[in-house]
Write a structure and sequence with these properties.
76% of the residues lie in helices and 0% in strands. The protein is mainly α and 313 residues long. Helix 2 packs across helix 10, helix 4 runs antiparallel to helix 12 and helix 6 runs antiparallel to helix 13. The protein starts with a helix and ends in a 21-residue tail after the last helix.
Length: 313
């Protein structure tokens, strides 16, 4: 009984992390409706860096040079992801953003050169996702090209996949403290965004309490809390189970967009959403089964870093 309760508690934490990540698209979109994108990015990074710094100070663990160098490199790639995602969600719906970023799941394994070659079924799942993207971006006009916001989210998914693959290589080759790595990434992002955000700091300072709450949600809950909770949970369950539960993020993105954001899906985009979820889960299952039959391969999950990186919304 105690063991079952522990499993359920761990599962609940992972579902909560997925829910928080899924809801982040609507929160980010709401924030960019009030503030310039660069102001939102700076606030998110700066608040996250301060929170991560507090965690690091409390833990008082020794640093390594690798954590500093790798964290700075990953901070650059993570900043690229967040810039594309935030501009993307500002020009599309939260539901579309959450669905399209889930393409990271099928984009990451081919980019990770440490993995064994993938079977043809994986690429069939990826092709299904491509068709789904056309339907999602078509609106009410049928199959067509995605809109600007959707294209930015597709670019974010590709860059995020490269970032996840890079995190996998770094954490596979070196022993690094995930909190240290995350703190350096957040500090690097803050430094990179600050020069571009300076003209908008006045608007940021003048923003009301509702916008401030959104920014705190993005920085603390979608960043620091989600990362720490994810790290705690994956140490207490299997990688496959964690990946499956974290993979519900796009479902929560659609649910919050429709229920709280007043968004809607056309019949074409709803069909695309169903196909995309099918394709990503199919691709994830194929990759997971293939890796299980290849013990020499690394145990990273596709589409989500299980350690070493704060995921982007």
């Amino acid at each position: 009984m105690v063991g079952m309760l522990a499993v359920r508690r761990t599962d609940a934490v992972l579902v909560l992390v997925a829910l928080v990540w899924g809801s982040s698209y609507l929160v980010a979109k709401s924030a960019t409706d009030v503030l310039p994108v660069l102001a939102v990015l700076f606030a998110r990074y700066a608040l996250g860096a301060l929170a991560c710094g507090g965690v690091v100070l409390v833990r008082r663990r020794a640093w390594t040079r690798t954590e500093g160098r790798a964290g700075a490199l990953l901070g650059v790639t993570q900043a690229a992801v967040l810039v594309l995602e935030t501009y993307g969600v500002a020009h599309t719906s939260a539901a579309h953003a959450g669905l399209l970023i889930s393409l990271t799941i099928v984009l990451t394994p081919p980019l990770d050169r440490t993995r064994p070659p993938l079977p043809g079924r994986f690429y069939a799942a990826a092709l299904l996702c491509v068709v789904a993207v056309g339907l999602i971006g078509a609106g009410g006009e049928g199959l067509g090209l995605p809109r600007v916001g959707d294209l930015l989210m597709l670019a974010a998914a590709l860059v995020r996949a490269g970032h996840v693959a890079l995190v996998g290589r770094v954490t596979a080759r070196h022993r690094v403290d995930p909190a240290h790595l995350t703190a350096v990434q957040m500090a690097t992002g803050t430094v990179l965004v600050l020069p571009f955000a300076v003209p908008h700091l006045g608007a940021l300072a003048a923003s009301g309490p509702a916008t401030g709450a959104r920014l705190l949600y993005l920085a603390l809950l979608c960043g620091v809390f989600a990362f720490l909770a994810q790290t705690w949970a994956v140490q207490r369950t299997s990688a496959s189970r964690a990946s499956l539960l974290l993979g519900t993020e796009p479902v929560w993105a659609v649910a919050t967009g429709l229920a709280l954001g007043g968004e809607h899906l056309t019949p074409w985009s709803a069909t695309g959403a169903a196909l995309l979820l099918t394709g990503t889960y199919w691709g994830q299952a194929v990759e997971r089964a293939h890796r299980a039959r290849t013990p020499a391969g690394p145990s990273r999950e596709s589409g989500k870093p299980l350690a070493g990186s704060v995921p982007a919304p």
